[in-house]
Amino acid sequence: MTPQNISLFCLLLLSVSVCESELQCKEGHSGPTHDSLKAVFDLQSFRPAVNLSNPTVTNISFTLYAVLGVNEKAQILTTFLWLRLYWFHEFLIWDPDQCDGVTKLSLPVKELWSPDIIVYEFVDDDVSQACPFVYVNHTGHIRWDRMLRLVSACNLKIFSFPFDVQNCSFTFGSYMHTIKDVRLSPALSFEEMSRNSRRYLEASGEWELVDILGETSILQFGVDEWDIITFWVVIKRRPVLYVVNLLIPSSFLMIIDILSFYLPPHSVDRASFKMTLILGYTVFLLIMNDLLPSTANGTPIIGIYFSVCLALMVISLLETVVITNVLHHNSMKYKEVPNWVRIVVLKHIARLICYRSPEVVEPPTKHEEDKPNNLNCISPSTVIQTENNVPVTHQSSLGGNYTSLPELQQICQYVGDLRSHLHSLQKESKLQEQWCHVGYVLDFLLFRIYLLLISCYAMVIICMWCIWISQD
């Protein structure tokens, strides 16, 4: 017989002797003896069951102590758990009456068999402090408390950010032992776990615990089956930080853009003001880009909100360009307002938007422009001179005496030119006044359309957030 077979035979005999009797206690000693515990420690590699056909039942419970972080881009949730495992060790049983009333003792976990319970969503090494001891009851029930820093994969849905609710699963199960060897069951009800977690949750940061749900099931892979427990941890984000730093400043900039329509377009460079506002909004988005989550699966609705707000600002700038062109470009060309524009814009659209404009002064007609000058100037043909070039007094038909001098003729010509220039300025002023009223009516119309777009957009965003939250 080889030495390996001899040692194996000795271990089997030792296990049989341990299984047939309880742990021994000596007089004057509190608890089981060292020799009897040493015999149990030597069986650390074997599952503690007298009949190996009977599975070892392991009870699991945990308390969510902290939510350390959520990485939306990597789809990772980092939590800190107080994990507690219970199982039955059939070799660790003693009589308290024979052991000086000792009912519980602590033993090193590395000397005992322990179930290989893992979290299937685990994606990183556990760097938490290990607990080297377990509590053993005289009935053979073992309790192992662990501090577990759990870095788990989670399907994070950020569409409704910052009003999102995440539902992440923790699946506990044995790595090697099938359902024939290890069975799992919750040590506490899921309601108690949720209540304890809400009571002890300390480092939650921007997240708060909503509920902890769970169920037991069987995982089948090929011909083997594993017993598993799945916990769903439902957490909700606290949106105050993002509302204060993102939504409120963006809303202020949008309100300023709306109020900029009240600037008079004919006397203030509204386009420059809107360009400065768009530049400020772009800088705001660049600064706040780190606060927005980013994933390859989709874009949060708040990102769409910012993009549409920027697009609305650009539309507002285009509206200002159109109105500026109507107010200045057409009037500088001395074009009269077409008759159809007067009917459609100044009559129907103005009545539709309840715009009350003063009476528009009609520009001078062609007949008025060609009306002769009423200045009583003497033409050169009426000048009468003597041979010595001495001016002669001429009696006009009106009964006045006029002396026809060259200087007087030049003055009359200057006055006529001045009258023509004043008439041209008056015509330009009347045309500008007409085009100003057309521009004001279009400005009021486009402003109300802009307000309607923003209001509908805001209502759609709010409804989508509410529907998404209610579904979760």
Explain the overall architecture.
There is one protein chain. The chain has 472 residues and is of the alpha+beta class. It has 9 helices and 12 strands. It has a 6-stranded mixed beta sheet, with helices on one face. A 4-stranded antiparallel beta sheet has the order 4-7-10-9, with helices on one face. Strand 9 (207-221) and strand 10 form a beta hairpin. Helix 5 packs antiparallel against helix 6. The longest helix has 66 residues, at 406-471. The protein is rod-shaped. Residues 3-20 and 360-402 have low confidence and may be disordered.
Layout of secondary structure:
Layout: H1 3-20, H2 34-41, E1 56-71, E2 76-88, E3 104-108, E4 117-119, E5 133-137, E6 141-153, E7 165-174, E8 182-186, H3 190-200, E9 207-221, E10 224-237, H4 240-259, H5 270-287, H6 301-332, H7 339-352, H8 366-369, E11 393-395, E12 401-403, H9 406-471
Parallel strand pairs: 1-8
Antiparallel strand pairs: 1-2, 2-6, 3-5, 4-7, 5-6, 7-10, 9-10, 11-12
Helix pairs in contact: 4-5, 4-6, 5-6, 6-9, 7-9
